[in-house]
Give the backbone structure.
Amino acid sequence: MNDPRFDVPSRIPALNGLYAGLYTASETLLRVVCGLALVTHGLPKIMNPFGAVGMVEGLGFYPGVFWSPLLALTEFLGGLLIAIGFLTRPAALAATIVLLVTVWFHWITQGQGYSGAEKSILWAAITLFFAIRGANRHSVDAALGRQF
């Protein structure tokens, strides 16, 4: 194994090959699940792109007729891009920003604290990972020979 990520011996050295073999597959699975979860969450918004005007204006984003469709596109199209691994970094960065707004909304605006923001924190950490890391070899980005 020439990959430096696996130079540190595991507690069960016999499993090093398994860990190395599953590394890329597990990262791909996480990216696809993350993207599809965003697509699922954004589907109702993309079907009614102006349906969240009141919500986004309630968060202080004016004009809502601009931000509501942008939110829908970020969740739906951004999720699709993350899932297939195309323009992964910009799509994941946009999703991270949206998710950090939801952290603020639940924690501060709604006063729910950590328990209300927990899911958004986890999803923001996942999308931030892909904003930094990009997609792996199982992606459209890799097929194009570029990491965006």
The first helix runs from residue 16 to 47.
